[in-house]
Structure of Heparan-alpha-glucosaminide N-acetyltransferase-like:
Amino acid sequence: MDQEARRVEEGFGPAVPAVGQKEDHDKAQFGKIDKNDGGDCIDNEKELGTRIGSSELDHHHPSTEEKQAGEEQPVVVKQKSKRVATLDAFRGLTIVLMILVDDAGGAYSRIDHSPWNGCTLADFVMPFFLFIVGVAIALALKKIPKIDVAIKKIVFRTLKLLFWGIILQGGYSHAPDDLAYGVDMKHIRWFGILQRIALVYFVVAMIETLTTKRRPAVLESGNISIFTAYRWQWIGGFVAFLVYMITTYALYVPDWSFVLHNDDDGAKRYTVKCGMRGHLGPACNAVGHVDRQVWGVNHLYAYPVWIRLKVCKHGKNAPSWCLAPFEPEGLLSSISAILSGTIGIHYGHVLIHFKGHAERLRQWVSMGFILLTVAIILHFTDAIPMNKQLYSFSYVCFTAGAAGIVFSAFYILIDVWGLRTPFLFLEWIGMNAMLVFVMAAQGIFAAFVNGWYYETPDKTLVNWIQDHVFINVWHSERLGTLLYVIFAEITFWGVVSGILHKLGIYWKL
């Protein structure tokens, strides 16, 4: 593994100017990235070669005679640039939250996704991913010698994310409980978590790459100079906002139908009455309509969280749409999600251009609180409710603001105060985020272990540990499940990631 390809300068300059300094790549969502690449990497600290002469140390300018007298030539001094460990820790935190809410959300509904309007712990996972993708893109693409090469790598990484998304969440993989695999192409799910990340990554990284020649080396004075310097990124985010808002409120949603298959009644068709515009409820919103038209109703997520709404618990008297599929990572909502990546890349730009801790934090925290304030006003005035399923504008602001505050808090604790040890397990997980996402969050490792069963498929090591080590000991299925997720999944993969980090092994995507 090429050591130089894993080194990075993440916004902390050396104490003196560097001459001939090489700009390396930086981290993104999963795995490692290459130079000129807006993708993902895990890397080590980069040693900067800095040429220091006597004039740089004591401001003495030697005369010609002194030079002729054999004055020593400037020497190369290597200094380590301090990497921003917060990026890995924040990414690791997001993976941990995903495992926690996915595997313990069934036992504790308060941390599971909100059935419709509102925001719970689980609803922060996706925007946190997109936020850190944006931060990492800014660092990875701050120096692009060859734009065409960067574009090719961005396209290739996007295709890889789309491929893995379909394999893991399209229905082909039945992990961890079902040992079968394969999917009926008439019902394959085309969009999911990695597909949304791929779309946001592609748009944000392409804008960053194509506007590289308009990028300033030094910011002008003024509080909004960081925004005007990267106006094209914000214009791209604003276009995404306009497309989403206009489509959401202006698109006519007609009546629609779906077929439900079950063993008792066979196939039964249901019709949902709509015929309206601008509706933000589960049945007749434009987000669902776009997905039904683009992907087809049979290719959407079959178990939407709205089934936990009170209105859907009335049995046969429940509305027909309660049984319908709905894509929480849909096309129109993913266009809105581009804003999360845009806000994230702004935080990365701040990291690049402002070298002082105080100035960085002032920029980050102020924007975080502004976003939170906007979101709270929009939500509690019922202007635009927070809604993860629709990826509403207030939801974008609230989750991005929260991401900015958490990122700033991590930065203070880890990179300013140096309290790195308590967060090492998050760093390790963040460095191998793709591995932990696939093996733990998507249950591939548990499915592999479950493949070695005794007598019947339900007698597996995973089930035995969950039942006998946790649930039966604590005499509580809820508490046992939570402890199992914390220790047998999160802690286990934290240790595995730490070992792999020590061995220099990372999953590159």
User: Anything to note?
Assistant: The chain has 17 helices and eight strands. The radius of gyration is 25 Å. The mean pLDDT is 83. The first helix runs from residue 54 to 58.
